[in-house]
Amino acid sequence: MGNKLFLICPFSCIENFIQEEYGENVFFLTSNAAVFNFDETAYIESVKEFIESHNIKEVVVVNDLSCRFLHKVLQSAGEQTRNSAEKALSHLLKDNYAFLTQQPSFKEQLTQLATLNIQEQIHKMMELDVFGVLFMLNGIKVTGLISDKLDQKVYKFKMPKVHFQNEC
Fold this sequence. Notes:
Order of helices and strands: EHEHEHHHHHEE
Strand content: 15-25%
Shape: globular
Oligomer: single chain
Mean pLDDT: 86
CATH class of the domain at 3-67 and 107-158: Alpha Beta
CATH superfamily of the domain at 3-67 and 107-158: Carbonic anhydrase
Number of helices: 7
Strand order of the largest sheet: 2-1-3-4-5
CATH architecture of the domain at 3-67 and 107-158: 3-Layer(aba) Sandwich
């Protein structure tokens, strides 16, 4: 049985919640709002080496609905961004403003913005041949998870199949 790597926001404090749901064979990689910098070669190589050396069989990008960055961006309509995570979320908000503001509740807006962020992070990761090839050759699943630790619920979803540039 392989291990799972969860990409999470450290301020959401969901490590214990995830371990209760998924057991002990879990590892965590953290970044504000689970927005990762996949532009740095050394960082990408470190993550790749970690995945290979720890027998990772599933990578899960997670946003918890308590995430302070999701809340701040939604409450300020993306106008008060100070860091790269807030800027990335603000960009998603602006690109999807009509859709997000049509949601019936703030919680649903949070859920949809979290979904968009997870999809964006997975897309950025899978665009990189180093991860796409690694995942394909090793049968590593990539999924998204929205957690609501206050309600003790998790919502897992699979991403559509990604076609790599090298495929015929």
